[in-house]
Amino acid sequence: MNRDLDLPPRVWAIVPAAGRSRRMGVNKLFLPWGGSTVLGTLLSTLGGGGLSGVFVVGRADDDELANAVAKAGAEFVPAAVDPPDMRTSIEIGLRRVALEQPNGSDAWLTVPADHPLGDPATVQTLCAAWSEHGTGIVMPEWNGRRGHPTLFAWPLAAEVAEIPADSGLNWLVRKHAQNLHVVETSDPSVLADLDRPDDYKTWRNRLGAEAPG
What whole-number distance in Å separates Cα of residue 188 and Cα of residue 64? Predict the structure, then answer.
């Protein structure tokens, strides 16, 4: 059944979470962050952002992740085979979104699971910008630097499979640069990147997150 095109556009979040945190040395998704964890902070923010659904893609045997996702009110999407890269995780997430019967006016949002986005208003602002433009891609920018989350028009989901093996979603962003809408934000957490222990310490201090006990 086709959805009424006069209804407001829907936006679903896809959170790739199948990595093994090898560069961090510990499971960074469960490192303390504020009164929660890195993952808990992100899912709380997405949950307060007015989205139509939040889908977290992870390894099928990752019970700790599945339980945390369910506790946060999001949906865990198990990968039958461990995803070799983030693009594969996103493709799995897109197949789950497709079950919601999105149309051309809808969008999907993606943000890495280790990205402790802290302000639901940032998600709301990006979705509002999407409602205004309704096409292409929407990205946040803080202090001249672009970050996450990134919103894509639903029709662009069909092009993810075209991304070269050595490239990520930035390839898609470059391809559709003429339809890229950048939104200035006052939220520095859009840039938070927690690949290594020093990144965690730097961003925890910068964003005022509670020090781990």
Answer: 29
**Rounded alpha-carbon distances, angstroms, from residue 6 to 71, 112, 174:** 34, 31, 30
Mean pLDDT of the chain: 91
CATH number for 134: 3.90.550.10
The answer to whether residue 5 sits within a structural domain is no
Burial class from Cβ neighbours inside 10 Å (0-12, 13-18, 19+) for residue 32 reads: middle
Burial 3-27 (b: 16+ CB within 10 A, else e): eeeeeebbbbbbbbbbbebeebeeb
Domain range for residue 23?
Answer: 11-205
Cβ 185 vs Cβ 122: under 8 Å: yes
Q: What is the pTM of this model?
A: 0.93
Q: How many domains does the chain have?
A: 1
pLDDT at 147: 95
Tokens 């996702």 — which residue? 69
Query: CB within 8 A of 52, min separation 6: which ones?
Result: 10, 11, 12, 100
Residue 16 falls within a domain, yes or no?
A: yes
Q: What is the pLDDT of residues 86-133, one digit of tens each?
A: 999 999 999 999 999 999 999 999 999 999 999 999 999 999 999 998
**Is residue 1 assigned to a domain?**
no
List pLDDT tens digits, range 7-18: 678 999 999 999
Q: Is residue 95 part of a domain?
A: yes
